[in-house]
Specification:
Helix content is about 35%, strand content about 15%. The protein is an alpha+beta fold. A hairpin with a 6-residue loop joins strand 5 and strand 6. The termini are far apart.
Length: about 210
């Protein structure tokens, strides 16, 4: 598939259905691109679609089935958009929280494989119904442990506002959960004592609101 070069082609690209409830268009909006007049279109549309399909079918659809509507805050970034955001971040500009392009390959940059050749995709999402039900200090950890026990994620990064989090699907997943919620820390990772086994006792309260959990 060629990179869309006109409105008609971009419209058709946006109509690609990645899973029953998600379309490619859902993931293309970028605040950075909108503010600075940049396009946010994959250089390799086929790889972006393949990675996005995995993200949606294996992670986002199961989450939406259990917890209700998912709100997408940000997702795909082109190398140009991410690189610009990283430059602004390094210059200490507020609101441009982008890591390096190399660090975002197979993450927010869906159309580039990472240094190890892995395909992947990341979206930053909010689950409104979960936050409405569980918004006390530390409640985000229940969702993190539920995902850890049920879904094939690679990385999770949680944020304080509405318990927004980055969720990554990637070939050869790393299975790491980190948080920017104070005190910022790593919740779990392979080799940590709390990594293996069931964590149902940590997320069981979710069932009182979400019976499918």
């Amino acid at each position: 598939m060629k990179q869309p070069a006109n409105v008609e082609a971009l419209s058709e690209f946006g109509r690609i259905r990645l899973s029953p409830n998600f379309f490619m268009r859902d993931f293309l909006f970028s605040d950075i691109a909108a503010l600075h007049g940049m396009s946010n279109i994959p250089d390799d549309p086929d790889l972006a679609v393949a990675a996005g399909t995995k993200l949606c079918t294996e992670l986002l659809e199961p989450l939406q089935d259990v917890f209700g509507r998912i709100a997408i805050r940000s997702a795909y970034r082109s190398s140009e958009v991410n690189g610009f955001g990283n430059k602004m971040q390094l210059e200490n500009k507020k609101g441009y929280n982008c890591g390096s392009n190399e660090g975002n390959y197979a993450a927010h940059i869906w159309d580039r494989r990472d240094a190890k050749g892995n395909m992947g995709a990341t979206a930053c999402i909010v689950i409104p119904a979960f936050y409405d039900a569980f918004h006390e200090e530390g409640d985000w950890q229940m969702l993190a442990w539920w995902i850890h026990d049920h879904l094939p994620y690679s990385k999770l990064w949680f944020f304080p506002k509405y318990w927004a989090f980055n969720i990554q699907w990637r070939e050869n997943p790393e299975r790491k959960i980190n948080s920017y919620v104070e005190p910022a820390r790593q919740l779990t990772a392979p080799g940590k004592p709390n990594f293996d086994g069931s964590h149902e006792d940590l997320w069981a309260p979710i069932r009182s609101v979400f019976p499918k959990a």
